[in-house]
Design brief:
heterodimer; A: 9 helices; globular; B: about 250 residues; mainly alpha; 13 helices
Chain lengths: ~180, ~250
């Protein structure tokens, strides 16, 4: 990014190839809309170009990128007049994919159902909890970088990650109970 | 360690001695670690969605358009810079003269002013060399004589002009303007190499001769292979060939 910031804008292609998938998954986890997630990925890279001179090489690039991503997501949600809400119908397709991919039919059905439930629990998590789980688990970000993105202390991040996984666990068990009854 | 402290360590980092000791003595935390750990791990099993190919397509379109926009904005911006820089340079020169007349030359303010003047001259030279008009680029080359011969940025701009400027006059002027850089300890190696490397890139005889003369003047033996190639090239202009032979003799 330092090179892009210094005027070699073509080098942004390297960053795009490295980061566009994780960014897409971040947005998809946050809003559940593929089309919107792709638009937001585009928006993030455009903002990187536009604000390239504001990048400080001493700062973590990942943290800087996710700060831009968060702002882009918030702006988009504000424009649409909604919070980033997940579309529940997508679970059915995802479950079908999982079932067909597994070699043992019985196991795969059960595993697919568990994962579909887990996905559903994830999507029912409040936005802030979902975000911190996505950043720490799916994006593999360090607590230090997450703290920079969210503007809080590292210790706070650890506590929030713990609370988020506990909340996920409660939603998951509630859904499981609902299904069993 | 308390249960609360242990909880924040369950998801990563829970490897310390205190944490292990706490788990041994606390069944509730042990169960929680096991439960939450399993859930944490199973998040990995969720399917990874892939974006469509359109994302890549749109990105490269956007990047191309952005670069094009930057390139077309460059001359206009450069023009504004050099105008501002020239005006600022005049002000700074005026102030510098004022200080110089009244004050001791070793004063730090004067040193700073000199540096500012040098920086303005550099800016004007670089900006003018990027202009559309050949006469402006010639002026830029002339301005380069006013910068310190250790200024790598201006030297590189002159080398680019020698290699790529469409106007023969500007290229010739740039070859001459490189002379001071071959005498500076900071840039002489780079400048000499740049002149050697520029020779095979030229196809205009008059510029080729100017470069050969320059290399002969420098007695630059590293240029001998390129000069020999010119001598043996049947398609080369006869005037250039003779000049290359002359330069080779002079270098011996």
């Amino acid at each position: 990014m330092a090179e892009v910031s210094g005027g070699q804008v073509a080098r942004l292609a390297v960053l795009f190839e490295r980061h566009h998938r994780p960014l897409f998954r971040y947005f998809l986890s946050m809003n559940g809309n593929r089309e919107l997630a792709e638009d937001l990925v585009q928006e993030v890279f455009f903002r990187m170009l536009r604000y390239r001179t504001s990048y400080d090489p001493a700062q973590s690039f990942t943290a800087w990128m996710y700060q831009i991503a968060r702002n882009a997501g918030v702006d988009q949600a504000r424009k649409r007049g909604t919070a980033q809400v997940v579309d529940i119908d997508t679970f059915v397709d995802r479950r079908a994919e999982l079932v067909s991919a597994s070699p043992d039919p019985e196991e795969s059905v059960s595993r697919g159902q568990d994962l579909a439930l887990l996905r559903r629990a994830m999507d029912q998590l409040p936005e802030d909890k979902r975000e911190i789980l996505v950043l720490s688990r799916f994006q593999g970000m360090k607590h230090e970088d997450i703290a920079e993105v969210l503007g809080c202390e590292v210790g706070t991040v650890k506590v929030r990650v713990y609370r988020a996984i506990r909340a996920l666990e409660q939603i998951y068990f509630a859904l499981e109970k609902e299904k069993a009854s | 360690m308390t249960c609360d402290q242990a909880r924040t360590q369950m998801l990563g980092g829970g490897e310390g001695k205190d944490f292990a000791e706490h788990l041994e003595s606390c069944e509730s935390c042990r169960n929680e670690v096991s439960r939450i750990g399993t859930l944490w791990q199973s998040l990995d099993l969720l399917p990874m969605e892939e974006p469509s190919g359109q994302v890549r397509e749109r990105f490269y379109e956007m990047l191309g358009a952005y670069r094009q926009g930057l390139a077309s904005a460059e001359p206009r911006r450069a023009f504004q810079w050099w105008q501002m820089a020239a005006a600022a340079a005049l002000v700074v020169v005026g102030l510098g003269i004022g200080y110089g007349v009244r004050e001791d030359k070793s004063r730090p303010e004067l040193v700073q002013l000199r540096e500012e003047v040098a920086s303005m001259r550099q800016l004007v030279a670089l900006s003018l060399m990027q202009q559309q008009s050949a006469s402006d680029r010639l002026r830029g080359v002339s301005w380069s004589y006013q910068v310190e011969p250790s200024d790598e940025e201006v030297m590189n701009a002159l080398v680019t002009t020698v290699n790529h400027d469409p106007s023969v006059n500007v290229r010739l002027a740039a070859v001459d303007a490189l002379r001071p850089f071959t005498g500076s300890p900071a840039t002489h190696v780079m400048a000499r190499n740049a002149v050697i490397q520029a020779l095979p890139k030229q196809t205009t005889p008059i510029v080729q001769v100017a470069l050969i003369d320059f290399l002969a003047e420098l007695k630059e033996r590293n240029a001998a292979p390129e000069l020999r190639r010119l001598v043996s090239d049947p398609d080369i202009d006869s005037g250039v060939r003779k000049r290359a032979e002359w330069a080779l003799e002079r270098m011996q």
